[in-house]
Design goal:
By secondary structure, the protein is α/β, with parallel strands linked by helices. Helices cover 33% and strands 15% of the residues. It folds into two domains: 1-37; 45-260, Alpha/Beta hydrolase fold, catalytic domain (Rossmann fold), CATH 3.40.50. Helix 5 links the parallel strand 5 (141-146) and strand 6. Helix 3 (99-107) packs across helix 7 (243-255). Residues 84-248 form the Alpha/beta hydrolase fold-5 domain.
């Protein structure tokens, strides 16, 4: 007959094995859920096509950037080279998704630099633009971003106002950590009327963190995902305009914004 002490020890081992099995299953479940939840929105066919470049746009992939350069000598009819446009992607959106917008800006003569963020989250790379400014210390730049990327771009701009010409928001807003109220920088905000993702209350609160003369433009029929090219986004409204129209309207708004306005030859 088995001693009582051995029987108790065996029972304890069984309990611990059961607990360990449940812990492993729980961790595997959390890992699977995290993979699904943190999986970025992937660039669609239109974005992949824009990544191939064109006769007037040169595209280069770098470790931390996607570069869209106007063709050799192209200034879009301006008297001198135009400022560069730094773009921080939205949260969990592949940077390639903004290639159609970047390509259109480059066709107008603006160099565009789309940041490649750790885990596709700008919150982990809000100072990514620092390396670009160090690489081109004499360059003129504006910075902005889509959704989460816009808020993180504002935080960078708030810390480096003397190195930038302005800040733009695409379905985004500034917060207290990136207050531009006294930064002395022009601010442009673009929002689609059919945006179902943007937190309107927080955006309204964000007005306290930008200059009083900030420009707010509403894009009729545009939605949240339409600034990029990655398909539908959870919770978003349905766009009433084609993606091409949203990109073109965005380019026009940026071209007419004071920091990017072209000087006549």
């Amino acid at each position: 007959m088995e001693p009582r002490s051995q029987s108790r020890a065996r029972a304890k081992r069984s309990v611990w094995r059961l607990i360990a099995s449940w812990m492993i299953l729980l961790l595997l479940g959390l890992a699977a859920a995290g993979f699904v939840y943190l999986r970025p929105y992937e660039a669609d066919d239109a974005a992949r096509l824009a990544m191939m470049g064109s006769a007037g746009v040169e595209v280069a992939k770098e470790a931390h950037w996607l570069r869209f350069e106007p063709g050799s000598g192209e200034t879009g009819g301006a008297a001198k080279p135009l400022p560069g446009v730094i773009l921080y992607p939205g949260g969990l959106v592949q940077p390639e998704s903004y290639a159609p917008l970047a390509s259109r800006l480059a066709e107008e003569g603006y160099p565009v630099y789309i940041a490649r963020m750790p885990l596709s989250l700008a919150v982990f790379g809000q100072n990514r633009a620092e390396e670009l400014l160090q690489r081109e210390p004499q360059g003129d730049f504006v910075i902005g971003g889509h959704s989460l990327g816009g808020s993180m771009a504002a935080r960078f701009a708030a810390a480096h106002p003397d190195r930038l010409r302005g800040v733009f928001f695409l379905a985004a807003y500034a917060d207290e950590g990136g207050s531009l109220r006294d930064a002395g920088l022009p601010v442009l905000s673009l929002v689609g009327t059919n945006d179902g993702v943007l937190n309107r209350e927080r955006m309204e609160a964000g007005r306290a963190y930008v200059p009083g003369d900030a420009s707010y433009l509403s894009m009729e029929g545009g939605n949240h995902a339409g600034f990029g090219s990655y398909g539908p986004q959870r919770g978003d409204g349905e766009a009433a305009i084609l993606p091409e129209e949203q990109w073109e309207r965005t380019v026009e708004a940026l071209k007419n914004w004071a920091p990017l306005r072209k000087e006549a030859p």
